[in-house]
């Protein structure tokens, strides 16, 4: 059957069937940032049309490497067919990917994974991203801003121990409940009217000095009971940060969705190499991060079985 003729499967056990596409994408541009970070823009219309915040892609980094690499989507524009990816060099595969140049063709498998699902009953989303976990938070924030409607705009908190992959902006959007001097923000979100604040232990100007989850705790403490009842947390980043985000949600009695990170070989559920233990109503179960996730309810994750690094 031609790829375009595929239709999503109705089998609830295999919801990803017929929804993942392989595209020979054109690299539009690649932008280098300090800390060996790169923002890549690719023309991948099928992926862009179906991607949702929390989705990721599996890229072929170089013809010399048979194994693909999973990378989160930071933006997706169905109109132009462009997807945007932020990555940091970790290993030879991503180093080779960073050397690709505009006009190159890159095989893209995607979009993959279960997305974030904001609740209509919670009007104050708190988005927490750490390091290479920043991209899904940008995607989710942009999606929420486009939806508009009633309620407050999402608050996006981002943390990094290396320079952020964007020029820091002095926020013009008022935000109560944070320490004085915490004013650094992401320009893209500022332009969307979405408040953001940054955290780092590296001492960057205008950033909170500490972990991003600690910054989130300070903001939550400032809310009254009625406002707190409208908060829902979404998080993506390294496992220790996600564990802290889950604890934060538990301490304040809030729902929380986390996007987990795991090593992946196939990324389409076949190899089961990315399984994690999830507590379900019928007991513990091993779930695949690639297609059963990467987004899970933080309260369902068996954090004691997750790596500590």
Give the number of helices: 7
Percent of residues in helices = 10-25%
Secondary-structure element string: EEHEEEHEEHEEEHEEHHEHEEEE
> By helix and strand content, what is the structural category?
alpha/beta
Strand content: 25-35%
As for the number of domains, it is 2
**Gyration radius, rounded:** 19 Å
CATH class of the largest domain, anyone? Alpha Beta
Global morphology: globular
Number of strands: 17
Largest sheet: 7 strands, mixed
Question: If strands are numbered along the chain, what order do they take across the biggest sheet?
Answer: 12-11-8-7-13-14-17
CATH topology of the largest domain: Rossmann fold
Kindly report the average pLDDT value.
92
CATH architecture of the largest domain: 3-Layer(aba) Sandwich
Low-confidence stretches: 1-13
Task: Write a brief caption for the model.
It contains seven helices and 17 strands. The strands form four sheets. A seven-stranded mixed sheet has the order 12-11-8-7-13-14-17, sandwiched between helices. A six-stranded antiparallel barrel has the order 1-2-5-4-3-6. It has a two-stranded antiparallel ribbon with strand order 9-10. Helix 5 runs parallel beside helix 7.
Structure description:
With about 300 residues, this protein is of the alpha/beta class. About 20% of the residues lie in helices and about 30% in strands. It has helices at about 45-50, 90-100, 135-145, 185-190, 210-220, 225-230, 240-250; strands spanning about 20-35, 35-45, 55-60, 70-75, 80-90, 105-110, 125-130, 155-160, 170, 185, 195-200, 210, 230-235, 255-260, 275-280, 285-290, 295. The chain has a seven-stranded mixed β-sheet with strand order 12-11-8-7-13-14-17, sandwiched between helices. It has a six-stranded antiparallel beta barrel with strand order 1-2-5-4-3-6. The termini are far apart.
């Amino acid at each position: 059957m031609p790829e375009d003729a595929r239709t999503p499967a109705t089998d609830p056990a295999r919801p990803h069937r017929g929804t993942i596409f392989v595209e020979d994408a054109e690299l539009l541009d690649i932008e280098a940032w300090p800390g060996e970070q790169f923002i890549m823009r690719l023309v991948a219309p099928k992926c862009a049309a179906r991607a949702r915040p929390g989705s990721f892609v599996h890229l072929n980094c170089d013809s010399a490497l048979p194994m693909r690499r999973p990378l989160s989507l930071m933006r997706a524009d169905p109109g132009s067919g462009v997807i945007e990816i932020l990555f940091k060099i970790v290993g030879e595969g991503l180093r080779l990917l960073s050397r690709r140049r505009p006009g190159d063709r890159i095989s893209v498998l995607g979009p993959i994974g279960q997305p974030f699902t904001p609740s209509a009953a919670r009007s104050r989303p708190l988005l927490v991203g750490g390091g290479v976990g920043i991209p899904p938070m940008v995607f989710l924030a942009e999606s929420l801003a486009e939806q508009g409607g009633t309620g407050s705009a999402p608050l996006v908190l981002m943390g990094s121990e290396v320079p952020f992959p964007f020029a820091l902006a002095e926020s013009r959007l008022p935000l109560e409940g944070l320490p004085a001097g915490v004013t650094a923000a992401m320009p893209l979100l500022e332009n969307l009217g979405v408040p953001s604040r940054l955290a780092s232990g590296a001492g960057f100007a205008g950033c909170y000095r500490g972990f991003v989850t600690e910054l989130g705790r300070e903001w939550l403490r400032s809310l009254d009971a009625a406002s707190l009842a409208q908060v829902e947390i979404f998080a993506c980043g390294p496992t220790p940060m996600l564990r802290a985000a889950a604890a934060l949600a538990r301490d304040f009695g809030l729902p929380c969705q986390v996007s987990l990170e795991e090593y992946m070989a196939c990324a389409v559920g076949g190899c089961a190499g990315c399984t994690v233990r999830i507590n379900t109503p019928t007991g513990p179960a091993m779930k695949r991060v690639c297609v059963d996730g990467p987004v899970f309810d933080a309260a369902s994750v068996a954090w004691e079985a997750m790596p500590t690094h």
